[in-house]
Specification:
four-stranded antiparallel β-sheet, mainly beta, seven-stranded mixed β-sheet, 5% helix, single chain, globular, 128 residues
Length: 128
């Protein structure tokens, strides 16, 4: 059982920045893909950004490319999402998610069905 605990959400003005953190309990698998999904009211959950331990690949949704950066600290079992130039349409609940096993970042980011474990979610609101 993997536990994922997110932090760092909040209210920010358009153009502002936030950094989300996701601390994972011990990942028993050497290979995994981990990242962030989001769900806005009335919309489906979508992949935002992921990173793979298998090949080091990263994935970004088109809507966040150039604004968001994913990174990880292996020693702390923590993954981060730096979000810059935030827009009102980025408002959503952001979930940390992990797939255990070999997978590219794009494979996880593109398919919710690949997620093995979810965090509880953290609210990000972009509003003036």
């Amino acid at each position: 059982q993997v536990q994922l605990v997110e932090s760092g959400g909040g209210l920010v003005q358009p153009g502002g920045s936030l950094r989300l953190s996701c601390a994972a309990s011990e990942l028993s698998s050497t290979y995994y893909a981990i990242g962030w999904f989001r769900q806005a009211p009335g919309k489906e959950r979508e992949g935002v950004s992921c990173i793979s331990s298998s090949d080091g690949s990263t994935y970004y949704a088109d809507s966040v490319k150039g604004r968001f950066t994913i990174s990880r600290d292996n020693a702390k079992n923590t993954v981060y999402l730096q979000m810059n130039s935030l827009k009102p349409e980025d408002t959503a609940v952001y979930y940390c998610a992990v797939h255990l096993g070999v997978a590219t970042a794009e494979a996880l980011g593109a398919q919710v069905a690949w997620v093995d474990y979810w965090g509880q979610g953290t609210q990000v609101t972009v509003s003036s």
